[in-house]
Amino acid sequence: MSPSHIARCTQLAMLLEVSATPKPGNIDRDHNYTDTRFEHFLASAVGVYPVLEKAAHSKSGIGALIHEAVKKSTLWQKGGNTHFGAFILLIPLVMAAGKCENETCLKAQVQNVVKETTVEDAIEFYRAFSEARVKVKTVDDLALGDAASIDKIRAQGLTLFNMMEISSSYDMLANEWVNGFQKTFECSGSIRNKIKNHGINDAVVLTFMELLSSNKDTFIQTKFDSKKAEQVSMRAREILQKADMGDIRDEIHSFDNELLKEGINPGSTADIIIAGLFVALFEGMRF
Amino acid sequence: MSPSHIARCTQLAMLLEVSATPKPGNIDRDHNYTDTRFEHFLASAVGVYPVLEKAAHSKSGIGALIHEAVKKSTLWQKGGNTHFGAFILLIPLVMAAGKCENETCLKAQVQNVVKETTVEDAIEFYRAFSEARVKVKTVDDLALGDAASIDKIRAQGLTLFNMMEISSSYDMLANEWVNGFQKTFECSGSIRNKIKNHGINDAVVLTFMELLSSNKDTFIQTKFDSKKAEQVSMRAREILQKADMGDIRDEIHSFDNELLKEGINPGSTADIIIAGLFVALFEGMRF
């Protein structure tokens, strides 16, 4: 696969995820927040192309590439952070895809890619986080945006993979890094299984609901608390237990309204869905 | 501007146009046709990137580039023809943008680009049309998909610009070629003027309505007749005469439903809107 092909699979993954509706609590084609709108996500997916293409033929530099992706995304739109979390998963996946000689070796390659990260990757990643002002739990005593923390990372010789290991117990995205992108590949399988009967929109929505029902969303935990995240997952589980698709759709709509009203957005769940869509598209899914 | 930057302005133009809603009669983020869906337009905009980048550093070969764009678009999605008409305008605009040393010379350059087309461009364009099975009025006695017609083009020495001249009296897109992309640049200005007060979605919707109100849509004329196209334009004019934006929105929704019910889609109007969005983005519009 050419770097251009891989970059386009990534763009399309970002576009399909943000378009899928209703995706409870998150921005989708029918929902905007006040300052961040659907169109900002379109512009971000478009603008970031050169960084994705570069990542597809890069053998190292994950941290710098994530940093560059965030910068490019915000150059093309004024809605702020749209895809930071997604880039944490997409950049290593895109780099792994670039190393693959066929569509089936992605799972093995991405594990190598994240394990080969360096202290410089950790520092670049820290800088990116600090600039993007993303809500995030402080990793141990390393305060984001604090120059002293960068010295600590260097002194302790922490690689980006080490930092993800530290966060993996409570952060879904870090957990993907540490556990071979397990949920990402599960989502890819789920979307591919559902697309024939449900179409691409509903395949994404149902997979989103399944992922949310079985995992407390990190973004909700950080913004609210663990209890709130667990309540949201429980509510998703209840809805999925309905057998009839018509009923489920109505319930998902109500669920969406409830979450939007409370300002609860399961952003980390959406990030894993984007990564899953990328895998499915890279492995040949079309519609 | 780099070819990549130009290609991304084009992708974003395609995405913003198909997303804008309600866009009476056409596919938008809230409306699909049976076989062609919103997501097919997203995939087409993504898939065509390499052809756009190539066009941005090409000095000739419009016909072959349009042909290649149509092929690439349909490789990435199974919804059929999504952007044929748009490519007729976008490819010369992208080529012109690639020749520009700043954002302001586009209007002059695009006129040169279309005038420099050759007989080979006409033949390639004919082939693309024939393969895409787009509804189109036969140009004089040149029947689309007919090998004898290609011989006639060659025998008469018709360039693609000549063919557009022949069609320009009844075809909005051909008329753009012949008249310096006048409506395209007007749409660009209108969108840029409206974006501050109305946001990007409504700026596109209102400009679409204005264009439709003052021009009989070619696609409607071909699919139905000139009378139907005139009725649609008249209805758009009536709606725009309402002073209050809230009222207009409701009326546009009703208009949308009427057109969808009758299967009337102002496709050529949408193509010019995409071209106008490209010009605005190339000239620096962000949101």
TrEMBL record, chains A, B:
<dbReference type="Pfam" id="PF01874">
    <property type="entry name" value="CitG"/>
</dbReference>
<dbReference type="InterPro" id="IPR002736">
    <property type="entry name" value="CitG"/>
</dbReference>
<dbReference type="GO" id="GO:0046917">
    <property type="term" value="F:triphosphoribosyl-dephospho-CoA synthase activity"/>
</dbReference>
<protein>
    <submittedName>
        <fullName>Putative triphosphoribosyl-dephospho-CoA synthase</fullName>
    </submittedName>
</protein>
<dbReference type="GO" id="GO:0005524">
    <property type="term" value="F:ATP binding"/>
</dbReference>
